[in-house]
Design a protein that fits this description.
Elements (H helix, E strand, L loop, with lengths): L2 E5 H6 L1 H11 L2 E6 L2 E7 L11 H6 L7 H19 L13
Parallel strand pairs: 1-2
Antiparallel strand pairs: 2-3
Amino acid sequence: MTVIELGVRELQRETSQVIQSVEKSGVTYRVTIQGRPTSVVLSRQRVLQSGATLEALLQSSVYRDKTDELVAAQLAELEASRDAVGRLGEPRHVGESR
């Protein structure tokens, strides 16, 4: 397998050529930022058959709806910060510390 390092700016300029190269030649590109490798790798893999339905995507490990998990994590973070500084509108007395 051939792995070629590709700068993010080059990827922006040559996106269609890079994708064609990956699809036709099987070349793998490792995207870099200022010469440092990132976790982004462009390679040819057959994940699902063409014409996959939404149900097939949801059942596969390729797509997983994380909306509920993300909302719960954001609410937990918001509640923690609210508890740390006090809720808006809570009565406070003069001289009372947070």
